[in-house]
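Study the following:
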Amino acid sequence: MSEMQTPVSGVTFRSLLAGALIAFCISVGAPYGNMVLRGSYMALDFSTAGAIFLFFVFVFFVHTFLGLLHPRLAFHRQELAVVYIMGIVGCAIPTMGLTEYLLPIISGAVYYASPENEWNQLIHPYIQTWLVPQDYEAVKFFYEGAPRNYALPWAVWLKPLVAWMPLILSIYFSMICISVVLRRQWIVRERLAFPLVQVPMAMIEDGERPSIIKPFFKSGLMWIGFALPFIVGSLRALHNYYNFIPSVNLQTSIPLFRNATALQIVLSFPMLGFSYFVNLEIAFAIWFFNLLARVQEGIFGILGITSTQKLYYAASFPVLAHQGMGAMLVLAIFGLWTAKPHLADVWRKAIKGDPSIDDSEEMLSYRTAVFGLLISNLFIFGWLWLAGMAWWVLPIYLTAMYLLFIAVTRVVAEGGIAAARAPLIASDFVTSGLGNTVLGPHTLTALGFTFVWAADIRTFVLASCANGLKLAEDTLGRHKRSLFGAIALSILISMGTSIVTVLYLSYEYGGINLNGWFFGPTGGPVYPFNFISGHLNDPQGPNITGWISTLSGGTVMGLLMLARQHFLWWPLHPLGFAVSTISMTNYISFSVFLAWLIKSLILRYGGPTLFQRARPFFLGLILGQFAVAGFWLIVDFFTGMTDNNIYWV
């Protein structure tokens, strides 16, 4: 195709079709993979493994095949960028992001109610009928499997889904608006690294000479890096088929402080690859502060410092969870404070239409983003109020929720941490900080239902949009406006398809027979209602220890950020402290340490030239891990093998 025919926006019929197909495959394949095959999770974390695997298949096989048929049939770089962006946005929804929490939680309130837990008396009177399905038989078959010739009870699910979908879409739209508002600050002004988009950026790069096969796939060093995780992963997979084939164990732990804590030693090929593209000071801080957090745990364990406070999706020591929460809040607030000049420009453009401020290169105009954020939050405010949350609690909850989403997105964009979550969820922050006695059962019930989208936040649309806009910045340039339609299409396809898939699989096999975490009596479906009943049964005022820990964590974080801003020699990046109390950081820190050590040696003895030359190898490590996970899921589908999970971060 000639240069004049190049689609500058990248949003063409065929890119939308290809992106929609990838989003569809992810929203069907990810639930099927973790529910029926019980294999590798491909839509679990910010790494968006499913999107990278399918994009690799698309670029290496489909795009190359079309180019061999005729060069004009090959996809342009801009089109490929749109395809991948649709893939990573779609990857944020079907598993941890929404669907496999939404359906089990809203039905778990009915299915798991029993005389022992007294949910019928404690919780059910405060649940709005439109929040949950009302037919017990339909809910029972959802968990246990439907009898033969039983038709899916769509009507039972229609009312709650119609009630929930506007809320979820409003939350997603607000995240898109936030990504637009912060894009220039993060990408242009602060130049964050965005390590998680390095692989797709490399896959779509064109060489100096026209070629059907992308230069990335011509690199022998990349294929060497690719082969390492592919061989190791294949050995692990084959071990499940033939136990005489040895499995490679890449994980151990070192007990510390009389077994009060342990340092996890895990080699993760993707994290080794991602961390290679992280600033050396950030990589050092991640593993250094992780060691300090383990020391803290050990000292607390030896001294018997503990707490009876029950927190969900948090560190084993509540004090550390609150400490991490303080650090995360300061990370987000300090970042917004630093962005004041840019945010002032956004506000002037949105309110006054200041012609000196150019927003033509944004996915949405600043006016649309600002007013879209305000209107969507008015709807969210009203929805949660109708669900039972007290009006005065809503600003506190929503502020904490958005600050956590922004902070975790910042951690992903700057630190390349593919597996992370907030150290404390917004619901626990509200109940701990205010005390449950002033909240009442209606508010506590509404807070419990927020577990659907704001509890185990290991992936969400804001992070996917931020990474997508970084890729768009390097490929689409100023032509991003039509990208919003592509993202919206991906969201709708992923939501609709994954909901239908999870409903069908659950009625076909029985949810509790498929995935113990998403459907079991000790997993996601009961967490919100244990949260509610626990607070109703144990009235408490504000947790003073929690406040002290939050303030101390925030103070340390603030001092670290000030030191970094005022002293050029200061070696400790504050981002490492912010993620140190997250349990998953303990599992990635060894890989981050290796990447820091290797990169330090490369830069010291080989300089930037050797760093660039080694780049394909580390990209290959990332791609190889996700490719082997996807490959063996396909093999397992045809062979019927289950419990063949070979993907780890």
